[in-house]
Amino acid sequence: MTITTDEVSTTDEVSEVAEETAAEETAAQTATHTVAPHADHQATSTGLSHNKLLMWMFLGSECLLFGALISTYLLLRERLPEGEIGPNDVFDIPFTSASSFVLLVSSLTMVLALANMNRGDERRFRIWLLCTALLGSIFIGGQAYEFTAFYNEGLGYTTNIFSSAFFSLTGFHGAHVTIGIIMLMSLLVLNMRGRLGPERAETVEIVGLYWHFVDIVWILIFTIVYLFPQ
Amino acid sequence: MSTDIATHDPTTHETTTHEHAHPSDWQYIKIALLLAVLTALEVFTYFESVHNLSDAVLYVVLTVLMVLKFVYVVAWFMHLKFDSIIFRRVFQVGIVMALAVYLIMLTAFEIW
Amino acid sequence: MTQVQEQGTVSTEVMPTMSAQRGQIALPAARVVASPMGVFARPQASRGWKSWLFTVDHKKIGIMYGAAALFFLVVGGIEALLIRLQLAQPGGSLLGASVYNQIFTMHGVTMVFLVIMPLAAAFANYLLPLQIGARDVAFPRLNAFSLWVFLAGGVFLNTSWFLGGAPDGGWFGYLPNAGITFSPSHGMDFYAIGLQITGIASLVSAINLIVTVINMRAPGMTLFRMPVLSWMLLVVQFLLLFAIPVITVALFLMMFDRLFDANFFNVAAGADPLLWQHLFWIFGHPEVYILILPAFGIISEVIPTFSRKPIFGYSFMVFSGILIGFMGWGVWAHHMFTSGLGPISVSAFSLSTMFIAVPTGIKILNWLATMWGGRLRFPTPMLFAVGAVAMFTIGGLSGVTHAVSPADTQQHDTYYIVAHFHYVIFGGALLGLLAGVYFWWPKVFGHRLGEKLGKASFWTLLVGFNLTFGPMHILGLQGMSRRIPTYTPEDGFTLWNAVATVGAFVIAVGVLLIFINIFASRRRARGPSPRPAPGPDPWDARSLEWMVPSPVPEHNFDEVPIVLSQDEFWHRKYETAEDGQMRRVATEVAQKGDAKGVHLPSPSYWPLVLALGLPIIGYALIFNLWFLLLGGALVIAGIYGWILEPPDDPEAPHDEHGNGEHGGEVMGLLEEGSESLVANGAVANGAVGS
Question: CA spacing 20 to 30 A to A163: which of A179, B81, C386, C471?
């Protein structure tokens, strides 16, 4: 039974490579060496929570989703034939600026809710959380108003390529905000029933991550869709 | 292999920033104010452009402001500035991938 | 009220035992899941169909993925045989053009999305936790959810046959050809919605497995000690993570175009049909690597085992896999060279396509170098693995000819392309995955598949495969187009089409032999004179999954192994003496699988409920929006049932559960949970030493 020298060289390579790997490895090693091997309660290899990692993965994936929608919008707006009803005919920048501002403020109230939860101040947590959900609802209301106004100006979903792309992109975003509001309200109910206390602040943080992500997507949409010259 | 830990020293400094305490409420409010100002600037630039600015300038200014807002929200409100490098990398890969792929696609369409 | 429920029952009944056991393994006897609201109790069955339906065990889920994939392999195979029968002779009249369109479309969709991907998912689910030394995946219920959603999507797609016609626009559904004007049946609606549903399954599963690999490795199992298969599966999950949203958007646009008269692909209104092609192939090319990389990983496990050598150039294998993953994002437009992209785009994508052959070539060379000088054995898995390498190399080489865009212009949409991708996907991916089936069968089921039948199936498949797809190179260069339902004797395609049809039936015999083997081996293993059980390590293999008994006990590892090196299990068995000889140092290194009271996640109803809602929503979108109420109700019930489900066991480690799962934890536990959270945070901050 022979074994090649490769056996040895490979393991050398590996330890070299291992040295190159980033901080996660350090964390992994440190973590694994602090854990008793027999314990069932094994800390995660990186020390990061599963749930938070899940949310960040999901958000990374969402980047490509909204990227595709925004690209579609850019392409179809550019290809819109002359004379068709287009963005310049319908957009109401002051109104949209106001609703952008509302969504931005909701991000602030969200972090304040989380900060209060982390401090154990559940009453203020509830107030700020409710504010966030309310601001989100105002945003959605604004979007509904905007869509109706556009429709009355002759821009329906099927009118032309611009309208299909615009309504789909902003509608997708609106759906995300709506889901966010439902999640926020669920948190609120859970908290009032005593099932979500400061010890589970991480759940709030994770919902918050989603909420902020929806906010940054709107930052992109506001500039690219509404403000960029047509 | 536990000796490996010692050799990993260079990487630990990357994570030392995490030791910052959570930002205070006032810091969050300051960030929000900044974001509000940036948004106002955006809108101002937009209306100014109707008379005074060329499209090229407008694109550049708006893009810069947009990226600034994006980064501030991600870094502070989403805590990425203070959080694990793994979260940061995951999100960065998503953004970079989306930017690269879709910019190439739109370039192939020659829409610029 | 709910609050009272949890605090009441749990604290009175579980607290006493729990406090004694904190920090230790919880005994199942202490697991009291009694709940006044019966609907929230978790299912308990550990045997029978219920134990499969509501399972969250990654091994059972893996087996079900595999079974579903093999079922769809038969479906897709029958479709392939119909295609070949139609084309067996000039002027074939078996199917007619319309049915032919549906058959080849569904053949492609089935084989790609319902066979290769789930078969790879079967390996990922079953093996990934075992190979990294974990007891389960990070989110067991999400794992079950992925399976059921995948199955729902697959069944949904195939019900189209009975509901007005299957998809007929080709597996890549180019628009506007697949639009409502040219494809008025509901077929492409099923395609758009069905693939979105299976996409959800892939995305959820991808996130789940990535978190598992990042967070749940055994002590000492650094990323660069993971087996190559784990690495390739990890790369595939990342590809899925970023590719699925792209196809989701594309399918969404298609769906809204077809169902709600949107204008995304309405050329008359100024839309650009290339938008679909770009979006589809931005997803589609990574998808190609999603199909092939798991097979690469399996080959990288099988070849070292039967060469009795470590994989040659482990880090090269890993990095070339990562590189393939990255570069796979920069080559998509080579599917569109004839669409008028413009010379710059064509040159750029031509170049990047040629470059991607480099990491692929590295892999092939490393497999050869692994075998070089090794003590080779050729049981069935090794035959399949080596066969896959050879066939993939042929397919890879014809792939490089597509990178040369002038040549590609000639080959585009001909049978040359069909030959190429069958060589990589059938010859590479499927043969590689079948190598895995034979290799891990004893691990999964506790008995081997018969060698004689196995070898017979391999040679039959190999001969049939080359007989079918080899001639297609010639047909393609002769100018035979893809997707034509028939041809004339004057075309000169008669001979090679006849050969290909014969080959297809030889393949069918090969697949049949596999199924016969499966049933015969099972019967023999249960019969009066079974062969001796293969034991935990039948192949003298190298990675951790061979350390546990076959079949794997529900808790995987009696105790989680501490990993000191790559090929950990091998190094526990062998050491190299001073004279360079390798000696077996330990005979009994496998675990017994008799650990008691290991905490395991409890089964759950909700993944199934949630998954059932999705196809109903699909039918609603196609046929009648009122069904949305039913589908939506199921989804909402599923989500809230899921969130509000009582924790199976208060001793559950804080991090083994899905989002928002800790409904009614007991206070003492919460302290413990937050302690571990703090500890985790400290580790993440690198502040352990300070």
Answer: A179
The reply to whether C445 and C555 lie within a common domain is no
C34 & C81 share domain:
no
**CB-based contact, C587 to chain B, within 8 Å:** no
Check if C639 contacts A (Cβ < 8 Å): no
Where in chain A are the domains? 9-48, 50-227
Tell me the C-alpha distance between C68 and C221, whole Å: 32
Q: Are residues B27 and B46 in the same domain?
A: yes
Environment class of C521 (CB within 10 Å of its CB; exposed 0-12, middle 13-18, buried 19+)? buried
Instruction: Say how many domains are in chain B.
Output: 2
Out of C210, C248, C263, closest to residue A164 by CB: C263
The residue whose two tokens read 């790559």 is C566
Are C33 and C69 in the same domain? no
CB within 8 Å: A60 and B55: no
Of A37, A46, A163, the CB nearest to C219: A37
Examine the pLDDT at C20 and tell me if it is beyond 80: no
Per-residue pLDDT reduced to its tens digit, C470-529:
999 999 999 999 999 999 999 999 999 999 999 999 999 999 999 999 999 999 998 888
Domain A50-227 belongs to what topology? Four Helix Bundle (Hemerythrin (Met), subunit A) (1.20.120)
Peptide bond into C176 cis (omega under 30): yes
* C50 interfacial to chain A (CB closer than 8 Å): no
Q: What ipTM was estimated for this complex?
A: 0.86
- For residue B112, the model assigns a pLDDT of 78
Tokens 């966030």 correspond to: A132
Of C337, C391, C393, which is closest to residue C361 (Cα–Cα)? C393
Contact B108/C345, CB-based, under 8 Å?
A: yes
CA–CA distance, C557 with C526 (Å, rounded to integer): 26
CB contact under 8 A, A65 and C249: yes
Whole-number Å distance between alpha carbons of A106 and A138: 10
Please name the member of C214, C315, C559 whose beta carbon is closest to the beta carbon of A46: C214
Q: What angle do helix axes A201-221 and A122-152 make, rounded to 10 degrees?
A: 30
The answer to whether residues B26 and B59 belong to one domain is: yes
Can you name the residues that pair with C575 across neighbouring β-strands? C583
Residues of B in contact with C684 (CB under 8 A): 15, 18, 84
Search chain C and give the residue with CA nearest B93: C242
SS3 state of residue C481: strand
Query: Is a pLDDT exceeding 50 seen at residue A155?
Result: yes
Q: What is the distance between the alpha carbons of residues A163 and A169, in angstroms, rounded to a whole number?
A: 10
**Same domain, yes or no: B69 and B30:** yes
- C634-643: pLDDT as tens digits: 999 999 888 8
**B22-61 confidence digits (pLDDT tens):** 788 899 999 999 999 999 999 988 888 766 778 888 889 9
Q: Indicate yes or no: CB of A164 within 8 angstroms of CB of C262.
A: yes
Side chain identity, residue A195:
R
In total, the C-beta contacts within 8 angstroms joining chain A to chain C are 253
Provide the 8-state DSSP code for C686: T
Eight-class DSSP state of C581: B
CA nearest neighbour of B65 among B86, B40, B38, B90: B38
Structural domain that includes position B42: 21-81
Contact C191, C146 (CB under 8 A): no
Query: Residue B9: CB partners within 8 Å, gap ≥ 6?
Result: none
Q: Which domain holds residue C440?
A: 52-526
Shortest distance, CA B54 to any CA of chain A (angstroms) = 10
CA distance C638 to C636: 5
Q: What is the DSSP letter of C547?
A: G
Residues of A in contact with C208 (CB under 8 A): 54
State phi, psi for C576 to the nearest 5 degrees: -95, 120
B71 and B88, same domain (yes or no)? no
Q: What are phi and psi of C581, to 5 degrees?
A: -80, 150
Which one has a higher pLDDT value, C664 or A99?
A99
